[in-house]
Design goal:
The protein has 168 residues and is of the alpha+beta class. The chain is 20% helix and 27% strand.
Length: 168
């Protein structure tokens, strides 16, 4: 009897682990990602920025690109981001199918200043070193107190600082 029970527990464990590994949902974590890392690259919407290596911001996008530069460079930039995060309730309910009441919360996006700094030093034609200080993830969403999603979040804030030393 004991061996049969162990076999059933093992089968249950295998099925549970398989379901967790193979049928889990995807994570959508790019909602707070900020691509605005270079003032010079913003002009062409960051198209091909990893291959271009046109200035010191290559420290962030492709550090090997420093080998294509010939001089010392300092680049300082800032972006003022005005996000928009609006919600429209289309019949939200609880797990027990009770309708949720409340407003749409207004525009939850809050403006933010996102700075960046890059320095690249050329030691010789073959050796370069650089450092980049950026904020690749961040921003704030804040909704009105009475909005329909108030049980999940009123204010969400994420602030990051990336310090990226590189040698090429």
């Amino acid at each position: 009897m004991f061996k049969k029970q162990n076999g059933s527990l093992l089968a249950l464990a295998v099925v549970t682990i398989s379901c967790v590994l193979f049928f889990s949902g995807s994570a959508a974590g790019s909602g707070f990602a900020i691509i605005e890392q270079s003032a010079s690259s913003a002009g062409y919407a960051y198209a091909g920025v990893a291959a271009a290596a046109q200035d010191a911001s290559t420290v962030f996008f492709n550090p090997a690109g420093m080998a294509l530069q010939s001089d010392n460079q300092l680049q300082v930039g800032a972006h003022y981001i005005i996000p928009q995060a609006e919600f429209k309730n289309q019949g939200s309910t609880t797990a027990l199918t009770t309708p949720l009441t409340g407003g749409n919360g207004g525009d939850g996006g809050k403006p933010a200043l996102v700075p960046n700094l890059f320095y690249m030093h050329s030691f010789s034609d073959q050796w370069k070193a650089g450092i980049g200080i950026t904020a690749p993830y961040g921003l704030v969403t804040e909704y009105d107190n009475g909005w329909v999603g108030r049980y999940y979040a009123l204010k969400s804030e994420l602030a990051t600082l990336n310090i990226n030393p590189s040698v090429a």
